[in-house]
Amino acid sequence: MWNLVDFVNESRQEATPHLNTKGLLTTDRKPKDAYYIYKAFWAKQPFVKIGGSDWPSRAQCADESSDTVATQPVTIYSNQYAVSLWVNGEPMGAKKIVNGKAVYPVRFKNGTNQIKAISANGSEDLVNVQFHVVANNLKSEENPFTSLNVSLGDARMFMDDLTGEAWVPEQAYKPGSWGYAGGYVYKENENSDRYGSTRVIVGTRYHALYQTQRVGLSAFRADVPDGVYEITFHFAELLTNKAQEKLINDLGVNTGTGNTKRGDIGHRSFGVIVNDAVFIEALSSENYLVPLRAYNTKTHVNVTHGGGIHIRFAAHGGEAVLNAIQLRRIY
Question: Considering the domain boundaries, does residue 19 fall inside one?
Fold first, then answer.
């Protein structure tokens, strides 16, 4: 253990700017899951704790064989020898505590899910999780489509503490479902396994959302049922002007010819077409695509004749980018 509590670090950027989050407690002294591992080994008073209690709103795509259920692991921490779990009143059985914890695969349903853990000595913990199961078939009658929040270039789930909205990571398009077509995940360092940017994004409190993106995508599709939808796009240029110049020089781009090559971010300009209607003619650094600054915009679309939502990205120079997208059914 390095330190007990998260602390201010003015020079730090990343997803939580100016804050080092390696502590066992948050700055307002709320225990993280890691805290309960230490408690399981050191505490003499019997206890049991359901992990992820600070994650009350979640979203995930449904299991492959279902449109209504999504399975996530739930970790139970305890200093007792065994624990039993109940989910929505159904017993999940008893498990032995190993190295301070036991892990259950829990099948979450849409709406409120109640999880209760009881340790061998009778100690209890209870949490309620609001879960949004995203159907694999977006036209499922068992699980009608309401909304979808996607973080592009990302493999993480994300929760908005203020609104309770839950975000899912990107996926490639599958017929009947949703996803991107083409492109690649942005990496600040191509030689690293780490994706996204570590820089602070101006104009938003959702730094993590704008620090990842898919570059060079050609489309994003969602085979939603007929209806009226609100679409919100989130963009950010993740390369500074200095980084753009370096990239151009490294690639040997001749900026005087008007020609561009892959990665020529200095000339990035692209349009966004929604169901064959031009929504954005040319998004670039000459208007709203300013380096390290969040930009979001929304539109509405009327889906008819089973056509779904088909968004195309037309690159005029460089490559198109998308950081996040939200779809919400209005009626």
Answer: no
- The answer to whether residues 226 and 236 touch, using CB atoms and an 8 Å cutoff, is no
- The CATH number that applies at residue 87 is 2.60.40.10
Within 4-123, strands assigned E span 7-8, 19-20, 48-50, 57-61, 69-78, 82-87, 90-96, 101-109, 111-119
- For residue 241, what pLDDT is reported? 61
Q: Report the pLDDT averaged over residues 50-65.
A: 94
152 shares its domain with 105? no
End-to-end CA separation in angstroms for the chain: 51
Domain count for the chain, please give it: 2
205 and 317 in a single domain? The answer is yes
pLDDT band at 242 (very low <50, low <70, confident <90, very high): low
Compute the half-sphere exposure of residue 289: CA atoms within 13 Å on the CB side of its CA. 26
Query: Does residue 253 share a domain with residue 117?
Result: no
pTM for this structure?
0.87
Q: What is the pLDDT of residues 260-317, one digit of tens each?
A: 334 444 579 999 999 999 999 999 989 999 999 999 999 999 999 999 999 999 999 9
Same domain, 147 and 168: yes
Domain that holds residue 36: 31-132
Give the whole-angstrom CA distance, residue 263 versus residue 248: 8
